[in-house]
Amino acid sequence: MSAGEKAKAKSEQIKGKAKEATGRAVGNERRTAEGRMEQTKGDLRGAKEKAKDAFED
Hints:
- With 57 residues, this protein is an all-alpha fold.
- It has helices spanning 3-26, 29-56.
């Protein structure tokens, strides 16, 4: 997995968790959903990179 893509995936996951927690704390369902979506995006990016690495080996 390229270091840049791995870092992007992790940062999306972290930002998503923070956004989701903030949304829950203030009762904003839209922000909570956006946070979950961002986490999922980071998870998918990481999975894509792991799959690419598996095929390169």
